[in-house]
């Protein structure tokens, strides 16, 4: 209901307070929090098609939910369900190969299974399970909208290659699930037109096309311009995320990465590193530095850090899987401020490069976003470790921008025009040319070797390999 109320507010704002000419809106597409889900009962279909334009939407939908709350990505209470689904599908690799990811607590399938377990009657009363994204499109056009392969891949329920529900995954999750899920359709599919409710209440046009909504991650892929091979984006936020365009559904045999559908009809990968800004801040604060000091120190310390390595696991890490937090240092004193500053950033960049190798992408361009992307010292190490040009992007809200660009593309498709994705993003998602940081060939070579040593440190710290001290010694005088 909170989401519905939010939509009421947005539409009211557009109609009454913005200067947008509503009749000029040709198409709309939404971006929803990936993995979140909405549960509707048998009254929903009728209620949504007979809305009273004199009243806010939220006042009219109170009875359509079979579950009063929506689980979202922050829920991690489904470990048991993850195990059960994984076992039923012959293990994590088989599940990842089928759906693009091994079972994750926040993914919608395990969430649905938990609902079925804990509230079987409410589950039985559920006629439609939407994702946040497909629910949004449903509210806009007044009839049930399909789920797109971008958001659908965040459920552990979709056959990644066929882009259709995987019967084995549905069976492993909950009985009768096939009948409760909307179909999967390509992202550019038109779900319908803006319903007469919006036209009569606020003056929108019933000619406006409603394209399928997608998840915030697939929408961000478009919003940062990743519509071709060789480009990835790295978001340096509270956590660091690396995501990229994939022409083929390659799956991470290590089980940490995700593969989703891309709104372009191709695929995307996404890897999350929990210790991002969190770790950089800890090191900065321990040394008593400002961000300016941090950047200056990165410029003054030697690439390779004379073989001194830090594993930045201030909190339990997702990639690689580190269940117990604990920072490890090799050859590095924790009171050495400059050494730790360089070590944390080199570690993060080498971990990203190593743990994204499974994508098989020859990276030539990286778009850097997020709060720490303003730090060119960090971006220089990114360029050298990845051997790629790094650009800063001036994208405020890449998920929203990506959804808007998707609406335009779906409109072009509906009009029978074959506009390419490069044309769709042109003029909207242009990297700042003057921001380019080119990799330095000598340093690229250094990091190519050091990345293997970093892997040895990770393995050693996780109790799976030898002490890497002798490898590190080679760099001491460098
Ligand atoms: P999120 O969206 O995950 O909340 P942001 O992308 O807004 O995060 O990034 C916020 C983070 O950026 C802050 O936590 C801070 O650590 C980091 N940050 C801000 N400025 C700098 C800087 N100059 N150098 C490095 N990190 C920075």
The 3D shape can be described as: globular
The number of E-state strands comes to 17
Q: What can be said about the biggest beta sheet?
A: 6 strands, mixed
The overall pLDDT, averaged over residues, is 95
Strand arrangement within the widest β-sheet reads 12-13-11-10-16-17
Given the structure, what is the number of helices?
20
Bound ligands, named by name, code or SMILES: adenosine-5'-diphosphate
How far apart, in Å, are the first and last alpha carbons?
Answer: 61 Å
Question: Structural class of the helix and strand makeup?
Answer: alpha/beta
Proportion of strand residues: 5-15%
| Rg measurement, Å | 24 Å
Measured as a percent range, the helix fraction is: 40-55%
List segments where confidence is low: pLDDT < 50 over at least 5 consecutive residues: none
Model description:
The protein is an alpha/beta fold. The protein has helices at residues 2-17, 44-49, 79-88, 92-99, 108-118, 120-124, 132-141, 149-152, 167-173, 177-180, 196-202, 216-223, 277-287, 291-300, 337-355, 376-386, 398-414, 421-425, 441-461, 469-473; strands at 27-28, 31-32, 37-40, 128-131, 158-159, 164-165, 190-193, 209-211, 214-215, 231-236, 240-246, 258-261, 267-273, 309-311, 328-330, 365-369, 389-392. The strands form six sheets. The protein has a six-stranded mixed β-sheet with strand order 12-13-11-10-16-17, with helices on both faces. The chain has a three-stranded mixed β-sheet with strand order 1-8-7, with helices on both faces. The relative contact order is 0.11. The structure holds adenosine-5'-diphosphate. Residues 237-238, 277, 280-281, 291, 370-372, 374-375 line the site of adenosine-5'-diphosphate (ADP).
